[in-house]
Amino acid sequence: MLARVRSATLLGIEAIPLLVECDISGGLPGIHTVGLPDAAVRESADRVRAAIRNAGFEVPPRRITVSLAPADLRKQGAGLDLPIALGILAANGQLPPDRLADLLVLGELALDGAVRRVPGCLPAALMARRAGLSGMIVPLSNREEALSIPGPAVHGVDSLLDAVAALRGERPPQLATAATYQPAPAQAGLDLSDVKGQAHAKRALEVAAAGGHHLLMVGPPGCGKTMLARRLPGILPPLSLDESIELTCIYSAAGLLREPGLLRARPFRAPHHTISAVGLVGGGRGPRPGEITLAHHGVLFLDEMAEFGRSTLDVLRQPLEDGVIVITRIGYAARMPCRFTLIGAMNPCPCGQLGRAERPCGCTPATVANYRSRVSGPLLDRFEIQVEVPPVPITDHATAAPGETSSRLAARVAAARRRREDNIEPALAASARRILYQA
């Protein structure tokens, strides 16, 4: 008997629809998986067999063939355990096959039949909505994630037994409506008023936030570059619903969601200078999103920028221009968004004391020139704003007047962006229409 179950696999941050076909025929007992499975999918045979048996069902002592279509796409992850198990039970007559016809199934199985959380549930929910499916069966711990968007009904199950009972109609499915999206409140504990002095750098930060410009800060250690950069997300406008869904899909695919529901705060990513080019832009056999994709709609902060490998930094040049990164390997091409604000910070020289009166710099001009050349000219050209951040004297910390708060700067940034949308974008659209008309 043949049974079919709909499922999905990840390609970058996108869920690709799969059809899991299970056939039971004569031959030596065993589960044989075809269709370019990776190691985790091949190992699912042992997990599925143990989970079915420990849940109280029968594993037929016959040859079981599991086909994962399309056959030319490599399948990855343990999220196919549950659809394979349900397909085997349906093919063996222990489950009505027609109940699976319009459902998308995802879930990893433990040996005792428990259903574990899997990455990529939200991209799969979006794919199910586009395909017009009526429902999803997902791990209970993924339920709120799948319900973040209006779409198919979501059945959250915590065991194989629960999934079978729901499909047999023995237990009512767990359903809920998607909650109304609310932007994140102001970030607590990080306010620009905490930074004493540095009015010029704060102004540069405000302009960068208003115009979406990349910013490079050059100054000695301890002058406040990192404090300023970490407070940039607090003056950016709140995420819209579409931005939040896109960002949550990225973190879901990367397995980095820590709380249920949509992400509501703009990301701030600060990778260490030892990061590789693959870690920065993404890739691998998966492929997995890199730091530039994890910083989408947010801030990517490169501290001690001159300490990064030059070849690592130069891979940023095209993504900064295009706002997307296409990872191409043998067998796949994954397209991932990466529209972010890049903030760079670096010392003026190797010792960091250049320009300080109280601590003279011991670097030679050749050493300083060599240090600054670690960041290539084409990459420096991507920074529309470059500012020097001088040290603030200790005496000024006690006497400096309180600076403007992040909420006040955020209001000005939001007003500037509204003016741009009201004035510049209609003008660009009109110009485009004139060009098309003249052509």
Describe it for me?
A hairpin with a 2-residue loop joins strand 15 and strand 16 (332-337). The model has no long low-confidence stretch (mean pLDDT 90). This protein has two domains: 2-168, Ribosomal Protein S5, domain 2 (2-Layer Sandwich); 192-427, P-loop containing nucleotide triphosphate hydrolases (Rossmann fold), CATH 3.40.50. The longest helix has 33 residues, at 406-438. The strands form six sheets. A five-stranded parallel sheet has the order 11-14-17-10-18. It has a four-stranded mixed sheet with strand order 1-2-4-3. Helix content is 35%, strand content 20%. The protein has 439 residues and is of the alpha/beta class. The protein starts with a strand and ends with a helix. It is built from 17 helices and 18 strands. It has helices at 39-42, 44-54, 81-91, 121-131, 143-146, 160-168, 199-211, 225-230, 241-253, 277-281, 291-294, 310-314, 317-322, 365-372, 377-380, 394-399, 406-438; strands at 2-11, 14-25, 30-34, 63-69, 103-105, 108-109, 115-116, 135-139, 153-157, 215-218, 268-269, 282-283, 288-289, 299-302, 324-329, 332-337, 341-346, 385-388. Helix 2 packs across helix 3 (81-91) and helix 7 crosses helix 17.
